[in-house]
């Protein structure tokens, strides 16, 4: 039986720099996703594609229904040249070109970013995006304009009122008692998210743990059951917000795309037997999420042995790593 291991981008970066190596194998299939391709697009560096080609990595895709909604399944495709896969991906995202800047500004403000002025343009940006998407296919009619106006007005009220009042993230954490790393110390527990909920549930009357952590939102956007993939992405965001091994730069628009991608990496990893990363904060959140939802994916990491660390400190290079389960 093949074992599928999903690769975080930092592992591919290490391989490209000669710090470690992986080999193609009949027993282990290395896996990447659209999120890895997005990271390559942001970096503008094709060396990562060479790594995927060398190790014969395969792309994982979510299974969607006829309305392009997630079904809960995923498919690991047969091997294709990663350079060809990447070119197809770039063609797809550029037709039409979707600007994610507004979404990033919105999330940065939720995390306490210093962008109160910038978010005031979000309603107009939203209208422009809808127009650019629908006009080429003759769907920007009066009925659609009315629907867009309703959403835009709600968004305008939000950015002019509630979003202006959000304080720095550590102040928000203090309001729920998770400031100064108070939940980060729970990472060593068998089920950290359960432990966090025991501390918080008294302040959250009327909602469940799944609702708070993003696995069962009130608004399911047309889904009867909220997809696990989206639940994992949401949970990763909540863990960052409350301060569980949080990533740096949560309120920075430049850093947020990579942080949000991490949540989706963890979600894709849930369809594999293992996920491999050397990012300790990433691994802590992945392990906590998988344990909470009883997902069998093993969180794996790579570490320099003492000899390699000593050699590197002396300016020598010994590509010696060990694979460990965390």
Features:
single chain, 326 residues, alpha/beta, seven-stranded mixed β-sheet, disordered C terminus
What would your notes on this structure say?
- Helix 6 (122-134) runs antiparallel to helix 7 and helix 11 (228-242) packs across helix 12 (256-269).
- This protein has helices spanning 9-16, 34-43, 47-54, 82-93, 101-110, 122-134, 142-160, 169-176, 192-200, 209-212, 228-242, 256-269, 280-292, 306-313, and strands at 3-7, 28-32, 58-64, 70-76, 274-276, 298-304, 321-325.
- The longest helix is centred in the middle third of the chain and has 19 residues, at 142-160.
- The chain is an alpha/beta fold and 326 residues long.
- Strands 4-3-2-1-5-6-7 form a 7-stranded mixed β-sheet.
- It is built from 14 helices and 7 strands.
In percent, how much strand structure appears in the residues?
5-15%
Shape: globular
Instruction: List the quaternary state of the chains.
Output: single chain
Strand order of the largest sheet: 4-3-2-1-5-6-7
Q: Quick one: how many beta strands?
A: 7
N- to C-terminal distance:
23 Å
Class by SSE composition: alpha/beta
Helix content: 40-55%
For the largest beta-sheet, the strand count, sense and barrel status come to:
7 strands, mixed
Q: What are the segments in which pLDDT stays under 50 over at least 5 consecutive residues?
A: 316-324
* Radius of gyration over C-alpha positions, nearest whole angstrom: 21 Å
Q: Helix count? A: 14
Average pLDDT: 90
User: What are the secondary-structure elements, in order, as H or E?
Assistant: EHEHHEEHHHHHHHHHEHEHE
